[in-house]
Structure formats: C-alpha cells, structure tokens
Amino acid sequence: MMRTLRALFLARLLREKILLVALALVVAALWLSNWAGRASVFLVEERHTTISLADQAKWLAHRNSVEKVAQEAARAFKPEQTLDSTRLLAAIQELAASSGLHNSYTAQPEDASTGQFSVHTLQFTVNKADYEALRAFYLALEKKAPYIGVEQFSVIADKANPASLTATMKISSVEIAR
Amino acid sequence: MLLPDALFFVRSVPVVVDPASDNGAVQVASQVELALEASSPFGLAQLYHGHFWAAGSDRAVVFAAYRRRFTAEQTAVWRGAELVLPTFAAVLGGAVEPATTVVLSSPEGLTAVHWDKGPVPDAVRFQPIPPEATDEERLRARTELLRASESKKVIDLTEPPLAEPRRGDGEVVFRSGDFVSRMPADAARGLDVRDKEELAALRRSRARDVVLWRVGVGCVVFFGLLAIGELALAGGGIWQQARRVKFNAQAPIVAGIMNRQEIADRINDLSTKRLLPIEMLLAVNPKALNPPAAIFFTRAFTTGLYTLTADAQTLNAGEIKTYQNELEALPACASVAIKNQQSRDNLATFTLVVAFKPEALKPLAPAP
C-alpha cells in the first residue's frame, strides 16, 4: 500500500509533488490551529468545572456543620422575642417616634430564610435629624440587641446647616420559627 | 531496467582499497574507470558503464557498452527507471558457493557468470546464439561456455531476473526462480550504466523527491495524530458534559447550603458582634481632642464592623497631620489613613479612614 502510494507520488511531476506537499502542510497547519483553539477552550472549561465541582464538594461536605453553626448561633436568641419583618418595621417606627425622629421612612424589608431561621433587613432613613435625637434612636436600638442590629450606618451633614443630619441605616432582625 | 548482455563487454579487474578508509566504493569507482579507459577502444564519455564490487574484495567486475548502440528512444525511457543495468548484473548479488557458475539464457544467447571464490565473479562470458538455433546447438554453446571455467555447481536460470518491490532504501533484490540476488543500495548504484553526471542529477532529484515524500508522509502521520486529538476532544466533551450535568444538578443544593451559611453567619454576627457607628464617631470626634481640632465632618459611613470613613473639612490644613497623629495614638485605632486631600479657597477637604481594633470600643448602651 505504502509502496504503491510512494511510487505514485514519486512518479508525479515536481510541481505536482510540491503542490501536494504544500497542500498537506497548509491543511495540517489549519487543522492544528483550529484544534489547538478548541483544545484550549476545552482545557479552560475543564479547569473551571473541576474547580466548581471541588467547591461544590466542599460545600456538600460541610452541609451538616453549616446546620450546626446556625443552630449554635440561634441559641443566643429566645424565639418568642425574635421579630419578623412586620414586627421589625413596627419596632423601628416606634423607636423613631419615641426618640423624636421625624421625616423618617423605611424601605421594603428584605428577607433571607432557611425555613427555620430568617434574617429580615430594612433600610431606615431619616432627614433633618438633630444629633441628640439620632443618638437616642441609636441607643434605643442598641438596647434591642441582639434581636435588632445595625449592619450599616451613614450620616451626612446638611451643607447649609451642619447640625441637620441625614442618616441611613441598614437594620436587621433575626426570626426563629417557633 | 535490464539491458541485453550482448551489448556489453565485461572485465574482471583487480582493485586495491585502503582497508582503513571508509570510502572504498569511491576508490574502486576511480580505479574501475582507469581500468576501463586502459582496456576500451572508446573514451569513457562514449561508454555507458557500471561495475560491481563487494566490500573487502580485491577485484571488481566492470562492464561497458558503446553509447551509439542505444537509440535516443531507448535511453529516453531510462529516466524513469530505478536502475539501468545489463541482465547478468542482476545476479551478481547472489549468495553462491565457490566454483559456481550461473547461466542466464536469453533470446540473443547465453551468459555465464562464474565465481571462483569470494563475492565478486572472476569471469562473465557471453555466447551469442542465433534465433534459429536448435536445442542441440544451444546445449553445445552452453557446454562450450562452461568449459572455460571449472565449476563445481552450475545454476541455470531459465527466467530473466526480476526486481522485487523495494521494502526500503537499503537493499535491491532480484529473483529468478529460486535464485535470489541481494545487493546493498551502494553496490546497486555502481551497477547503473547511465551517464554518471545525469545519474548524479537524477539521484539529487530523487533525494529531493524522497524528502518531499517524507514530508508528505509526516503530514499524513500528523493528520492521524490530529484525528486522535479530535477523538480525545470529542471524548473529553462527553465527559465534560456529564460533569456539567452533575454541577447543574448539585447547584441548587449547594446554593441552599451557601444561603444557610450566610444566614448562620449573619445570625452569629448579630448575636456576637455589634456595629458601633456612634461610638466610632465619638472616638474620632475632633472636638474631643486636647486641644480640640477645628475639623468638621460632612459625611461619615461604616464599612464592615470596624471601619469608619469620614469626609471632613478644615480651614487650617496644618491641623490634618496633627489630627492624624492624635488618632493614631488612640488605643482603639488599628490604623488611620488620610486620603483625597484637596484645598480650595482656604478650605482643605480630606477623607479619613479609620480602622478600629475589634472589641476595642465599648457600646454606649450595653445589651440587656
């Protein structure tokens, strides 16, 4: 077979031989280039999937310990004193009113839940507040810890009247299903 | 391509080769040409000639034919031939015992190749026989030929030797019935009677063609490897697909675990750690320093549980560095950085970033 092919090839004219070999080289180069590109994409995907699967395996292996951590953390709370989103909203409004904060508003609470445990978060903003009222509200909030906690806090002084403050807080509460 | 023996005259000539030299074939070729010039009535340029020599032998068989005995049409077909040699030369590579004669029969006559000892024959004789000769006349001619040499064994080849397909570049094999003649490629090249310059050019072009052939074969082998690579990629794709299916199937479960972890962390943070923004502001309050600094905060916000960032301004830019030094001296501060310092109309503005040590600040209102 190879001898026949060799004899056929050697019997061709020189230009035909050169053309055939050049064609084979070009095809080989194009194929290699195309294959190398696809192989590179495959390797990147393979590596990414390997890392993702390893990450998933890690999480799956820690499933029980995650549950334990949540149970452990929940021990600090008395379930009957925890607040759902409605009670959190009501508590914030009550504390703001009792602290003398007016011009306040809250955004729609966001809930993160595992079924047994939930964390409710809302953004509380107050405009044109004076420092003492804000401090009183903050101290009232602190007294509700750990059932209510401040996760983020920002305050801006009015340019025309630096004593007039705009404060924004991200306030969270824990709810444990009874 | 085998040529009629009748056209060639043949001599066995002594040769001397330096045993230490590795170019014995070249030395023999030049000695053969000299011997041919001495014994031939024609110049070398008027002859088609070749020779046979085996390494270690002290003689060579040289054969030549007058060029004009071949027509232009005949020589034109030589170009495509691998080898062009007289018919008897095809049996010179035979493995024969000493005192053996090989007799080749052709329509033009009989050729006797006699080996006394060693691999190179000592005599090659041709006896022409007219086409109309009877079997008896042919037998008589054969007896006449064999009488010239003492032979212990006579091998009659009734069929002309035929070249076997080549299995490589190292050897040329001719076969006639059971008789096999093997010649190394180097020895076979010496047998070729074509014009030596043309032969050299032919060999160069052949070497180039072989290189092209090998490149072509290399490409084909490479195609095979690429095809294996394609199969590997296809197999890898199927494997990868199966892994992706597994990943997608596990993704909601893992997302649930991650969500539980996040909520557990948040519950843990809410129960054990507290953000103390007012306490942070009081700790860095410029008015609380001794002496108080004329620095005012325009905005402040927390990042994480322990970092406070504040945009501040002052009419006395010189106080900024002093203020930073005072803060760095506070036991609760882990680090103090002043950024984005600018000044316009005697009003210097800057950003203060203070990182507090965990649990260093005490809450104003302890948890119940």
What is the compact description of this entry?
The complex is a heterodimer of chains A (178) and B (368). Chain A has five helices and five strands; from the N terminus they run ααααβββαββ.
Describe this entry's structure for a reader.
The complex is a heterodimer of chains A (178) and B (368). Chain A is α+β, with helices and mostly antiparallel strands. In chain A, 54% of the residues lie in helices and 24% in strands. Chain A is built from five helices and five strands, in the order H-H-H-H-E-E-E-H-E-E. By secondary structure, chain B is of the alpha+beta class. Chain B is 37% helix and 28% strand. Chain B contains seven helices and 16 strands. Chain B has helices spanning 24-39, 72-76, 135-147, 185-191, 196-272, 277-283, 318-329; strands spanning 2-3, 9-14, 47-52, 59-66, 85-86, 100-106, 109-115, 123-128, 153-157, 162-163, 171-176, 179-184, 295-303, 307-314, 333-344, 347-356. Chain B has a four-stranded mixed beta sheet with strand order 8-7-6-9, covered by helices on one side. A four-stranded antiparallel beta sheet of chain B has the order 13-14-16-15, with helices on one face. In chain B, strands 2-4-3 form a three-stranded antiparallel beta sheet. Strand 4 (148-157) of chain A pairs antiparallel with strand 13 of chain B.
Proportion in β-strands of chain A: 15-25%
| Global geometry of chain A | elongated
Measured distance between first and last alpha carbons of chain A:
84 Å
Which structural category fits the helices and strands of chain B? Answer: alpha+beta
Give the oligomeric state of the chains in this entry, treating copies of one chain as homo and distinct chains as hetero: heterodimer
Q: SSE order of chain A, as H and E?
A: HHHHEEEHEE
